[in-house]
Amino acid sequence: MAASSxxxxxxxxxxxxxxxxxxxxxxxxxxxGTSISEMDSPSPDTARPPKDIFNDPPEDIFNDPLSNIxxxxxxxxxxxxxxxxSDEAVDxxxxxxxxxxxxxxxxxxxxxxxxxxxxxxxxxKSDFKGEPPVQKNATRQQEIFEDPPKxxxxxxxxxxxxxxxLFGDDDDEEDLFKExxxxxxxxxxxxxxxxxxxTEVISDVKVKPQVKDDPTDLFAEEALSAPxxxxxxxxxxxxxxxxxxxxxxxxxxxxxxxxDSPHNDRKKKDAVKPSVSAPAAPAASSSSKAQSKTLEExxxxxxxxxxxLNISVTNPEKVGDGMxxxxxxxxxxxxxxTMFRSKTFTVRRRFSDFLGLYEKLSEKHSQNGYIVPPPPxxxxxGMTKVKVGKDDPSSxxxxxxxxxxxxxxxxxxxxxxxxxxxxxVREFLEKEELPRAVxxxxxxxxxxxxxxxxxxxxxxxxxxxxxxxxVWFDEKIQDVENEEQHLRKxxxxxxxxxxxxxxxxxxTAVFAKSVAMLGSSEDNTALSRALSQLAEVEDRIExxxxxxxxxxxxxxxxLLADYIRLLGAVRGCFDQRMKSxxxxxxAENMLQKKREAEAKLLWANKPDKLQQAxxxxxxxxxxxxxxxxxxxxxxxTVRKEVIRFDKEKTRDFKKQIIKYLESLLNSQQQxxxxxxAFLPEAKAIA
Amino acid sequence: MEGSNAETELGVSxxxxxxxxxxxxxxxxxxxxxxxxxxxxxxxxxFRTYDDFDWLQQSLFSQENLPGxxxxxxxxxxxxxxxxxxxxxxxxxxxxxxxxxxxDWQSYCKALEFYLQQVAAHPTxxxxxxxxxxxxxxxxxxxxxxxxxxxxxxSQAVEEMRKESHKDVDNFFQNERNKNTNVASLSxxxxxxxxxxxxxxxxxxxxxxxxxxxxxxxxxxxxADAVAFSKICLKLSDIxxxxxxxFEKVASNNLSTLGLGLDLESRYQEAEKEMLFRRTCxxxxxxxxxxxxxxxxxxxxxxxEAFQKAVEKEFNQISxxxxxxxxxxxxxxxxxxxxxxxxxxxxxxNTAKEFAELYSQHLEACRNMYLD
Lengths: 686, 372
Prior knowledge:
The structure holds two protein chains of two kinds. Chain A is mainly α. Chain A has 29 helices and three strands. Chain A is elongated. In chain B, a hairpin with an 8-residue loop joins strand 2 and strand 3. In chain B, helix 6 packs antiparallel against helix 7 and helix 7 packs antiparallel against helix 8. The chains are: A mainly alpha, B mainly alpha.
């Protein structure tokens, strides 16, 4: 807190006070951040009925400060609470920023508590009106519960665990009782009235010796960690609202603390609840342009450190026998990113795990307009060969090809600044055992293609309907389609090139053999020797051709295949944007209808139904605003993603071309060596 | 098959015999042949068709008053080309092999040129009037169709199977025949395989060409990123174009040196085989005559013995000529093959160096390419 106030002292009171005034906020609310209440509120909505919270007053108390810390000031929820202490609270909470201890020792602090106690019942309920970003929360919670064990060795683990529970609390009763002590133990000491409540709670919980210090520690930790993780943390929350980092909990807190700076506030909100309808937010009036700009800035920042992450997929290994056999790959990561436990780690993954990762990622991110790199297709034919055949060269090639494809796939995932932050990615790279991925069948070979085609059809259909306002998108969609066709064409060409190379290699081998035969039946010793030398040269050239064939294949053919798949994903993005547009338009139409209905009611003079109609209009207006913003956001994201994709593509191609040239040059140098060695032999014939 | 140092009695300089041009009129190829006498007179240029070549070959086969003519290894004349069929068609390829490749019948001309040089360099054949008239007369000699020579290939083929395995009386010839059969088939196979290699190289060059052209499709100037990507594609197109030229060069090197050399070697082996076969036929004839003489009644014995002597003399002449020819053949073929091998190796080496240089330039350019 202290940190945040130091960082942004002017905006804090500035932004807070108006909000308070406007919203006539409860004091506790003034002391707010967005995310936690946002996080918390939907989760009970989905996972647990809100009653739990209200059944138990102590819980409530401890929930509330937490949610208060984070709950958005502009929530309509809060407006319903007529807080007598709101003015007080302003003082209260602007003061403590300078000093933690103030918060704790101040007698006033407790004042809002009783208030809260008396009235919280309504609070969450209205909160829950917002549409929940359900899955996000779910994953987040899951992640939170996994966090503590990982960090348990650290001294701060208790705090972390505690705080993580604070955030993820609603699911678990125990958590609720663990938390209170930290907040409660400290607070009751100076306070008078609420003591009963808190002591009650304390008696429920075994208080560890260090628990007492916790709150201060907690805040100190926040303050300490605040500056450092800020960029990544905030960007991570921006990307998807899923918090993957260990310091998340703290950095989140940091963000919340500094929420009062309008930028962060918006980022947070946008990130955390992209689809939650929280309209009428006074702070949300900023243009999406400014927003996307900050996003870009954030990404720039991030792109600097993202490269220190090397992933390799190695040691394909057949596990099991018969048709139940599968290939396992070693996934090694080398990084200095602090979000990972250590600098190097290795896990074993099977192919379906990779597909599972893709499914998880695409489920979460593609609806937001992100280009999720697709994994290689399942190949029943290829895999069957591997399962059945033993040392068939074609199955070895298949395995190597797939290994390479998986490696490139993972590399593409982690170079994506947003996907890197996803907990599933981290889990995939780090965790020893993954739950077995199911239903990857849908992605198998033909099914995958069908899926892509379906997406394509949908896009083309929608293109007709959609009256594209943005020339950029109009052109880009066309470009992407053309490009895909071109790449397919090129892919065919390269394939034929590769097959010709292989043919050449085969023919050279046969020629070498026949030269060797000719040499062996030659009478003239010198000529005979020269011919057998020639046969050897041709043998080596054959090897060169073979190497070059696989080079051609792995540098170009696979590259093109990757990009054909990726372009499919790009089109999927456009598709998502269309969908979003469609939703917006539908809402717009609906609003129109409601207005007409209202007009009719007015005309018909039916005041009894008028209020309902007005409510509906308000509801649909809100939806329209929300959907429009969604659309703007997804447009911005898609645009950014496509630009990123184009850049990445150019870089990728350049890299591959250089690689290819190097291999060509190497072959030529080998050839020169061979010929130079052979020339004296030829001259020595005579 | 000797080098240009050999002189003919007619004074034609072997090295000066060149096929300088070829024109195609429907199915008819007309070759412009220049040659020069050793005595320094002006060069002569005549126009000949394949029929004229065929006439020359037949005339050489049917020379009279040449003892041991059948023992000569006649330089092999390439078989007739049918240019109206596309020169890459499988039939032509099968028939002519390497000679069907190359632009504008270049390799075919090369082979014909080589044939004429070999005839002119041959110590016996160069004396033929037919060669002189072929090289000098402006009239086309092919019109007066020479009678089919004694060595009709068709009838040969029928008898071949029966007589080829006939045991020889002379170990030298027996060995030579064995070796010849072996080498002839091996060199033929090697030639075919090299031909496959060259064909594949040409296919690859073609595929590279398509690839390189298609890369131009990706060019798009819409925005900065597209321009950067277009730049990359064009660069790759250039590179693939270079790869294509590399293949073309390598293929044409293979064709013009080792390919022609192996082709010639395999045809010469065939020519030797034919000669050996003619000798074997004579041997069989002699043996039959001997048997008949033994069986003959007294009144006819004298005639038969005289006949047998004549055949025996003829056979001996053939054998002695054949021995010389074989020796000559062996020494010259090693030379010729060596020259082809050296030429081939040098050309390939130069090509490899040239393209290594080119690739490294491209690599440098690529690394320095400014994209963002």
